[in-house]
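[audit] Reproducing an earlier prediction to check determinism. Same input, same settings, fresh worker. If the tokens differ from the archived copy the diff job will pick it up downstream; this log only records the rerun itself.
[audit] input (303 residues):
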Amino acid sequence: MPSLKVAVVMGGPSAERDVSIESGTGVMRALTALGHDARSLDFDGRFVDAMREIAPDVVFNALHGKGGEDGTIQGLLDLMQIPYTHSGVLASALAMDKPTAKILFAAAGLRCPSGRLVPPATLAAGHPMPVPYVIKPPNEGSTVGVRIVRSATERPFGNAPWEFPGDALVEEYIPGRELSVAVMGARALGVVEIISKTAFYDYEAKYSPGMSDHLVPAPLPDDITTLALETALKAHQVLGCRGVSRADLRWDDTRGAAGLYLLEVNTQPGLTPTSLVPDIARHVGISFSELVSWMVENAALDT
């Protein structure tokens, strides 16, 4: 494919701004080295005017969190008739809204942790289900706001109030091993197991060098590897994702195949030096530059 003018959109106002800038900076370097005309662009009040000035052939969406992966910028780019990487409006919105995604996954026969939305006042009054359980915002990424309540003596919110709008998503805690699967187009690339050096695979473990180990390929029985790959690809398809996505799973290895649970799908997985998708891709022979190139070319051809 000939050289393309690519606007790499990063930053934005979400809680994951810093991670987005790190992802976007790496993408910029890779695209420039590949001979593309890459321009960085923040997702701020000047975005539309700046986009018109740049007039890109394609947008590489390196945003994370609200506004960037919930269908907002996707709808804007659709209106501007500019092709972009990753999933479209509907898939992005569905994946970002965890309760809605869980309904779709369950209807497709995919096993997810049981859970429900709980008003903050109800949570503040006591435990909504037997411990241990997980509390998370229903529409944030990168484990922002996630808390595991492990003991009946713990207060659900600890010593801090609920800082997110609306209800909290409360789910049963799945013990065992942390897994993730990268999907690229119609192919599930591989499974990684994450060994976190913090209490769980939280924001610090995800983005601080040395705070987690990635085992690629994950040391799993063959049937669990196959099931994880099939689950991730089916989840990608159920939501209508395109490009690259990442499915996060937990495996209770005391229960065999019945212990594998799908947690969520990330339609815009991180591309930082500590991110999972580049590690998985590298293991199957796809370099970071090749991954980024495929994403841009796939988006440009998808118009």
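[audit] rerun output stored. Observation attached for the diff report: Residues 115-172 form one domain.
[audit] end
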